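User: My advisor, Dr. K., asked me to get a structural model of this assembly before our group meeting. I'm new to this, so sorry if the format is off. These are the inputs:
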Amino acid sequence: MNTDIQGNKPPAEQIAQKRRSLFPWINGAIVAALLGLIAYAWLHKPVAPGGHKYFGTYVAKDAPDFTLTDQDGKPFQFSSLRGKVVLMTFGFTHCPNICPTTLGNMSAIYRNLSPDEQKRVQIVFISVDPERDTPAVLKEYVPYFQAGFLGLTGTPDQLKAVTKDYGAFYEKQYQASDHAADYYTVNHSAYIYLINPAGKFDLLYDNEKFADSKSVLQDIRHELDSAGSK
Amino acid sequence: MALTSRLGAILFMCGTAVLFAATASGGDPSPLLKVVDAWVRAMPPSAGNTAAYMTLVNDGDTPVRLTGGNTPIAGSVSPMITTKKQVSGTEVLGMQDVDALEIPPHGRCVLKPGGDHLMIIGLKSHPKPGDHIQLTLRFEPGGKEITLDVPVRS
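Assistant: The format is fine. Below is the predicted structure of the whole assembly, which you can bring to the meeting.
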Protein backbone atom coordinates (compact mmCIF):
# COMPACT_ATOMS: atom_id res chain seq x y z
CA MET A 1 0.00 0.00 0.00
CA ASN A 2 2.76 2.41 0.89
CA THR A 3 5.03 1.62 -1.98
CA ASP A 4 4.16 1.36 -5.68
CA ILE A 5 5.74 -1.03 -8.19
CA GLN A 6 8.76 1.21 -8.85
CA GLY A 7 9.40 1.49 -5.14
CA ASN A 8 8.42 5.14 -5.12
CA LYS A 9 6.78 6.36 -2.03
CA PRO A 10 3.47 8.16 -2.40
CA PRO A 11 3.75 11.96 -2.48
CA ALA A 12 2.45 12.39 1.06
CA GLU A 13 5.28 10.34 2.47
CA GLN A 14 7.86 12.08 0.31
CA ILE A 15 6.74 15.36 1.73
CA ALA A 16 6.79 13.96 5.22
CA GLN A 17 10.34 12.77 4.69
CA LYS A 18 11.41 16.15 3.39
CA ARG A 19 9.88 17.76 6.44
CA ARG A 20 11.70 15.39 8.71
CA SER A 21 15.02 16.23 7.11
CA LEU A 22 14.36 19.91 7.56
CA PHE A 23 13.44 19.60 11.21
CA PRO A 24 16.94 19.63 12.72
CA TRP A 25 17.72 22.82 10.81
CA ILE A 26 14.52 24.53 11.81
CA ASN A 27 14.95 23.43 15.41
CA GLY A 28 18.54 24.62 15.41
CA ALA A 29 17.51 28.00 14.06
CA ILE A 30 14.75 28.36 16.64
CA VAL A 31 17.09 27.46 19.49
CA ALA A 32 19.70 29.92 18.24
CA ALA A 33 17.11 32.66 17.92
CA LEU A 34 15.80 31.97 21.41
CA LEU A 35 19.29 31.98 22.91
CA GLY A 36 19.95 35.25 21.15
CA LEU A 37 16.76 36.75 22.54
CA ILE A 38 17.52 35.59 26.06
CA ALA A 39 21.04 37.00 25.85
CA TYR A 40 19.67 40.27 24.50
CA ALA A 41 17.04 40.53 27.22
CA TRP A 42 19.61 39.73 29.88
CA LEU A 43 22.14 42.26 28.65
CA HIS A 44 19.49 44.96 28.28
CA LYS A 45 17.66 44.32 31.51
CA PRO A 46 17.79 47.73 33.11
CA VAL A 47 19.44 47.53 36.49
CA ALA A 48 18.54 50.40 38.73
CA PRO A 49 20.97 51.79 41.29
CA GLY A 50 21.17 49.48 44.27
CA GLY A 51 20.97 46.41 42.03
CA HIS A 52 17.18 46.33 41.72
CA LYS A 53 16.10 44.65 38.48
CA TYR A 54 12.91 46.25 37.21
CA PHE A 55 10.04 43.84 36.67
CA GLY A 56 8.09 46.32 34.57
CA THR A 57 9.26 47.42 31.14
CA TYR A 58 11.64 50.33 31.65
CA VAL A 59 10.40 53.44 29.84
CA ALA A 60 11.96 56.37 31.73
CA LYS A 61 10.50 59.40 29.99
CA ASP A 62 8.78 62.48 31.34
CA ALA A 63 5.15 61.73 32.15
CA PRO A 64 3.01 64.10 30.08
CA ASP A 65 0.89 66.33 32.32
CA PHE A 66 -2.86 66.69 31.80
CA THR A 67 -5.98 68.02 33.48
CA LEU A 68 -9.10 65.87 33.73
CA THR A 69 -12.17 65.83 35.99
CA ASP A 70 -12.03 63.85 39.23
CA GLN A 71 -14.78 61.75 40.80
CA ASP A 72 -16.02 64.82 42.72
CA GLY A 73 -16.47 66.73 39.47
CA LYS A 74 -13.47 68.98 40.12
CA PRO A 75 -10.59 69.65 37.74
CA PHE A 76 -7.61 67.51 38.57
CA GLN A 77 -4.10 68.24 37.40
CA PHE A 78 -1.99 65.14 37.10
CA SER A 79 1.29 66.83 38.09
CA SER A 80 -0.23 67.55 41.53
CA LEU A 81 0.69 63.93 42.31
CA ARG A 82 4.42 64.71 42.19
CA GLY A 83 6.14 63.17 45.18
CA LYS A 84 4.07 60.00 44.93
CA VAL A 85 4.41 56.78 43.02
CA VAL A 86 1.40 56.69 40.69
CA LEU A 87 -0.06 53.53 39.22
CA MET A 88 -2.42 54.50 36.43
CA THR A 89 -4.66 52.56 34.05
CA PHE A 90 -7.40 53.23 31.48
CA GLY A 91 -10.75 51.43 31.45
CA PHE A 92 -14.52 51.77 31.81
CA THR A 93 -16.94 50.87 34.58
CA HIS A 94 -19.22 48.66 32.44
CA CYS A 95 -16.21 46.41 31.95
CA PRO A 96 -16.97 43.13 33.75
CA ASN A 97 -13.66 41.38 33.31
CA ILE A 98 -10.38 43.15 32.53
CA CYS A 99 -10.90 46.37 34.53
CA PRO A 100 -12.10 44.81 37.79
CA THR A 101 -9.28 42.29 37.52
CA THR A 102 -6.72 45.10 37.16
CA LEU A 103 -8.32 47.16 39.94
CA GLY A 104 -8.47 44.06 42.14
CA ASN A 105 -4.76 43.49 41.56
CA MET A 106 -4.06 47.16 42.32
CA SER A 107 -6.00 46.79 45.54
CA ALA A 108 -4.02 43.67 46.50
CA ILE A 109 -0.76 45.53 45.89
CA TYR A 110 -1.96 48.58 47.82
CA ARG A 111 -3.04 46.50 50.83
CA ASN A 112 0.44 45.00 51.00
CA LEU A 113 2.03 48.42 51.46
CA SER A 114 2.61 49.80 54.95
CA PRO A 115 0.44 52.77 55.98
CA ASP A 116 3.47 55.05 55.46
CA GLU A 117 4.05 53.66 51.99
CA GLN A 118 0.35 53.96 51.15
CA LYS A 119 0.53 57.71 51.79
CA ARG A 120 3.14 57.92 49.04
CA VAL A 121 1.29 55.80 46.45
CA GLN A 122 -1.71 56.91 44.37
CA ILE A 123 -3.82 54.62 42.18
CA VAL A 124 -5.51 56.36 39.23
CA PHE A 125 -8.26 54.88 37.03
CA ILE A 126 -9.07 56.94 33.92
CA SER A 127 -12.38 56.14 32.25
CA VAL A 128 -12.39 56.10 28.46
CA ASP A 129 -16.20 55.89 28.40
CA PRO A 130 -17.20 59.52 29.09
CA GLU A 131 -20.77 58.94 27.87
CA ARG A 132 -21.65 56.57 30.68
CA ASP A 133 -18.94 57.18 33.28
CA THR A 134 -19.86 60.47 34.89
CA PRO A 135 -17.92 61.60 37.97
CA ALA A 136 -20.81 60.29 40.12
CA VAL A 137 -20.55 56.83 38.56
CA LEU A 138 -16.78 56.83 39.07
CA LYS A 139 -17.19 57.87 42.68
CA GLU A 140 -19.27 54.79 43.39
CA TYR A 141 -17.07 52.51 41.33
CA VAL A 142 -13.40 53.31 41.85
CA PRO A 143 -13.13 53.63 45.67
CA TYR A 144 -15.16 50.41 45.98
CA PHE A 145 -11.99 48.52 45.12
CA GLN A 146 -9.99 50.49 47.66
CA ALA A 147 -10.62 53.68 49.58
CA GLY A 148 -8.30 56.37 48.27
CA PHE A 149 -8.25 55.19 44.65
CA LEU A 150 -8.85 58.08 42.26
CA GLY A 151 -11.22 58.01 39.27
CA LEU A 152 -10.80 60.53 36.44
CA THR A 153 -12.77 61.30 33.32
CA GLY A 154 -12.99 64.12 30.81
CA THR A 155 -14.41 65.33 27.56
CA PRO A 156 -13.84 63.10 24.52
CA ASP A 157 -11.21 65.60 23.30
CA GLN A 158 -9.36 65.61 26.62
CA LEU A 159 -9.37 61.82 26.76
CA LYS A 160 -8.18 61.59 23.19
CA ALA A 161 -5.21 63.79 24.08
CA VAL A 162 -4.30 61.93 27.28
CA THR A 163 -4.54 58.48 25.72
CA LYS A 164 -2.45 59.65 22.78
CA ASP A 165 0.23 60.99 25.13
CA TYR A 166 0.44 57.65 26.92
CA GLY A 167 0.14 55.44 23.85
CA ALA A 168 -3.20 54.08 25.06
CA PHE A 169 -6.06 53.16 22.75
CA TYR A 170 -9.82 52.80 23.02
CA GLU A 171 -12.80 52.28 20.72
CA LYS A 172 -16.45 51.39 21.13
CA GLN A 173 -17.58 47.95 20.20
CA TYR A 174 -21.27 47.24 19.77
CA GLN A 175 -22.30 43.75 20.89
CA ALA A 176 -24.80 41.84 18.85
CA SER A 177 -26.94 39.36 20.66
CA ASP A 178 -29.29 39.61 23.62
CA HIS A 179 -28.70 43.30 24.24
CA ALA A 180 -30.30 46.57 23.35
CA ALA A 181 -29.18 47.79 19.94
CA ASP A 182 -27.10 50.55 21.47
CA TYR A 183 -25.32 48.31 23.96
CA TYR A 184 -21.59 48.62 23.63
CA THR A 185 -18.39 47.66 25.36
CA VAL A 186 -15.07 49.44 24.97
CA ASN A 187 -11.99 47.82 23.51
CA HIS A 188 -9.02 49.34 25.24
CA SER A 189 -5.35 48.90 25.90
CA ALA A 190 -4.89 47.53 29.39
CA TYR A 191 -1.45 48.68 30.41
CA ILE A 192 -0.54 49.89 33.87
CA TYR A 193 1.74 52.91 34.00
CA LEU A 194 4.08 53.56 36.89
CA ILE A 195 5.03 57.21 37.30
CA ASN A 196 7.72 57.85 39.88
CA PRO A 197 7.75 60.65 42.49
CA ALA A 198 9.90 62.83 40.22
CA GLY A 199 7.22 62.73 37.51
CA LYS A 200 8.99 60.23 35.28
CA PHE A 201 6.88 57.65 33.50
CA ASP A 202 9.29 54.93 34.53
CA LEU A 203 7.70 51.53 34.06
CA LEU A 204 4.98 49.87 32.02
CA TYR A 205 3.16 46.59 32.73
CA ASP A 206 0.68 44.68 30.63
CA ASN A 207 -2.31 43.38 32.53
CA GLU A 208 -1.02 39.81 32.67
CA LYS A 209 2.36 40.83 34.03
CA PHE A 210 0.65 43.09 36.54
CA ALA A 211 -1.06 40.06 38.11
CA ASP A 212 2.33 39.22 39.69
CA SER A 213 1.72 41.63 42.53
CA LYS A 214 4.83 40.62 44.50
CA SER A 215 7.16 41.70 41.70
CA VAL A 216 5.23 44.93 41.09
CA LEU A 217 5.45 45.64 44.81
CA GLN A 218 9.24 45.38 44.65
CA ASP A 219 9.33 47.91 41.80
CA ILE A 220 7.13 50.28 43.82
CA ARG A 221 9.29 49.93 46.93
CA HIS A 222 12.40 50.56 44.87
CA GLU A 223 10.86 53.75 43.45
CA LEU A 224 9.83 54.89 46.92
CA ASP A 225 13.27 54.15 48.36
CA SER A 226 15.21 55.88 45.62
CA ALA A 227 12.98 58.94 45.92
CA GLY A 228 13.41 58.97 49.69
CA SER A 229 17.20 58.76 49.53
CA LYS A 230 17.57 61.75 47.24
CA MET B 1 -5.38 44.50 11.97
CA ALA B 2 -7.88 41.71 12.15
CA LEU B 3 -7.94 39.33 15.05
CA THR B 4 -9.95 36.56 16.53
CA SER B 5 -13.01 38.74 16.93
CA ARG B 6 -15.33 40.23 14.34
CA LEU B 7 -15.49 36.87 12.66
CA GLY B 8 -19.02 36.51 13.84
CA ALA B 9 -17.68 33.54 15.69
CA ILE B 10 -20.57 31.20 16.04
CA LEU B 11 -18.59 28.91 18.19
CA PHE B 12 -15.41 29.41 20.03
CA MET B 13 -13.17 26.53 20.95
CA CYS B 14 -12.32 27.31 24.49
CA GLY B 15 -8.75 28.44 25.04
CA THR B 16 -5.96 26.00 24.44
CA ALA B 17 -7.67 23.63 26.81
CA VAL B 18 -7.61 20.78 24.31
CA LEU B 19 -4.18 19.88 25.63
CA PHE B 20 -5.69 18.85 28.87
CA ALA B 21 -6.57 15.32 29.77
CA ALA B 22 -9.74 14.68 31.67
CA THR B 23 -9.51 14.20 35.40
CA ALA B 24 -10.01 10.71 36.72
CA SER B 25 -13.02 10.26 38.89
CA GLY B 26 -12.74 7.02 40.78
CA GLY B 27 -15.18 4.97 38.75
CA ASP B 28 -18.26 6.66 40.14
CA PRO B 29 -21.08 7.02 37.69
CA SER B 30 -20.21 10.74 37.64
CA PRO B 31 -21.83 13.07 35.15
CA LEU B 32 -19.91 13.60 31.94
CA LEU B 33 -19.80 17.33 32.42
CA LYS B 34 -18.56 18.93 35.60
CA VAL B 35 -18.43 22.54 36.69
CA VAL B 36 -15.57 23.23 39.09
CA ASP B 37 -14.67 26.32 41.16
CA ALA B 38 -17.42 28.57 39.89
CA TRP B 39 -17.55 32.10 41.33
CA VAL B 40 -19.00 35.49 40.52
CA ARG B 41 -17.17 38.77 41.00
CA ALA B 42 -18.64 41.25 43.46
CA MET B 43 -19.03 44.63 41.81
CA PRO B 44 -19.70 48.14 43.08
CA PRO B 45 -23.34 49.29 43.21
CA SER B 46 -22.91 51.48 40.14
CA ALA B 47 -21.75 48.59 37.96
CA GLY B 48 -24.24 47.26 35.46
CA ASN B 49 -22.45 44.02 34.77
CA THR B 50 -20.27 41.37 36.30
CA ALA B 51 -18.69 38.09 35.27
CA ALA B 52 -18.81 34.45 36.30
CA TYR B 53 -15.71 32.27 36.20
CA MET B 54 -15.35 28.50 36.40
CA THR B 55 -13.69 25.43 34.96
CA LEU B 56 -15.88 23.20 32.81
CA VAL B 57 -14.68 19.61 32.53
CA ASN B 58 -16.03 17.37 29.79
CA ASP B 59 -15.40 13.66 30.45
CA GLY B 60 -17.53 12.62 27.50
CA ASP B 61 -16.55 11.59 23.98
CA THR B 62 -18.34 14.45 22.24
CA PRO B 63 -17.99 18.23 22.46
CA VAL B 64 -20.35 20.16 24.71
CA ARG B 65 -21.22 23.82 24.16
CA LEU B 66 -22.01 26.34 26.86
CA THR B 67 -24.54 28.62 25.22
CA GLY B 68 -25.46 30.90 28.13
CA GLY B 69 -27.75 30.78 31.07
CA ASN B 70 -29.73 32.89 33.46
CA THR B 71 -29.73 34.23 36.98
CA PRO B 72 -32.35 35.97 39.10
CA ILE B 73 -29.93 38.84 39.81
CA ALA B 74 -29.51 40.04 36.20
CA GLY B 75 -31.14 40.43 32.82
CA SER B 76 -29.02 38.04 30.82
CA VAL B 77 -25.98 35.78 30.84
CA SER B 78 -23.79 35.66 27.76
CA PRO B 79 -20.62 33.73 26.84
CA MET B 80 -17.81 36.15 26.03
CA ILE B 81 -14.32 35.71 24.68
CA THR B 82 -11.49 38.12 25.35
CA THR B 83 -9.94 39.46 22.17
CA LYS B 84 -6.50 40.90 21.61
CA LYS B 85 -5.24 42.95 18.73
CA GLN B 86 -2.37 45.27 17.96
CA VAL B 87 -3.10 48.88 17.09
CA SER B 88 0.12 50.59 16.04
CA GLY B 89 2.20 48.64 18.50
CA THR B 90 -0.29 48.84 21.36
CA GLU B 91 -2.05 45.74 22.57
CA VAL B 92 -5.78 46.38 22.74
CA LEU B 93 -8.08 44.09 24.69
CA GLY B 94 -11.75 43.72 24.06
CA MET B 95 -14.55 41.28 24.41
CA GLN B 96 -16.84 39.69 21.92
CA ASP B 97 -20.05 37.86 22.62
CA VAL B 98 -20.16 34.42 21.05
CA ASP B 99 -23.01 31.97 20.63
CA ALA B 100 -21.19 29.32 22.59
CA LEU B 101 -17.98 28.32 24.33
CA GLU B 102 -17.00 24.78 23.45
CA ILE B 103 -15.70 22.23 25.92
CA PRO B 104 -13.81 19.62 23.87
CA PRO B 105 -14.30 15.90 24.54
CA HIS B 106 -12.04 14.77 27.39
CA GLY B 107 -10.97 18.36 27.79
CA ARG B 108 -11.84 21.44 29.71
CA CYS B 109 -12.68 25.05 29.28
CA VAL B 110 -11.32 27.52 31.81
CA LEU B 111 -13.18 30.78 32.33
CA LYS B 112 -10.91 33.07 34.33
CA PRO B 113 -10.33 36.75 35.13
CA GLY B 114 -8.82 38.52 32.17
CA GLY B 115 -9.82 35.72 29.81
CA ASP B 116 -12.99 34.13 28.50
CA HIS B 117 -15.94 34.48 30.83
CA LEU B 118 -19.69 34.43 31.27
CA MET B 119 -20.83 38.02 31.31
CA ILE B 120 -23.75 38.72 33.64
CA ILE B 121 -25.49 41.67 32.07
CA GLY B 122 -27.89 44.16 33.61
CA LEU B 123 -27.48 43.57 37.33
CA LYS B 124 -30.69 44.03 39.30
CA SER B 125 -28.96 43.57 42.64
CA HIS B 126 -25.36 43.75 43.81
CA PRO B 127 -24.41 40.71 45.87
CA LYS B 128 -21.53 41.16 48.29
CA PRO B 129 -18.49 38.96 48.85
CA GLY B 130 -19.63 35.95 50.84
CA ASP B 131 -23.12 35.91 49.30
CA HIS B 132 -24.24 33.12 47.00
CA ILE B 133 -26.25 33.55 43.84
CA GLN B 134 -28.23 31.11 41.75
CA LEU B 135 -26.76 30.63 38.28
CA THR B 136 -28.24 28.33 35.67
CA LEU B 137 -26.01 27.26 32.77
CA ARG B 138 -27.41 26.03 29.47
CA PHE B 139 -25.61 23.48 27.32
CA GLU B 140 -25.94 22.05 23.85
CA PRO B 141 -26.61 19.54 22.49
CA GLY B 142 -29.91 18.91 24.15
CA GLY B 143 -30.54 22.25 25.86
CA LYS B 144 -29.56 20.70 29.20
CA GLU B 145 -29.40 23.02 32.17
CA ILE B 146 -27.34 22.92 35.34
CA THR B 147 -28.27 25.18 38.24
CA LEU B 148 -25.51 26.14 40.63
CA ASP B 149 -25.26 27.99 43.90
CA VAL B 150 -22.27 30.20 43.17
CA PRO B 151 -20.22 32.11 45.73
CA VAL B 152 -19.56 35.82 45.26
CA ARG B 153 -15.97 37.01 45.70
CA SER B 154 -14.15 40.27 45.26
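One thing worth pointing out at the meeting: Confidence is low (pLDDT under 50) at residues 1-11, 15-30 of chain B.

User: Perfect, thanks a lot.
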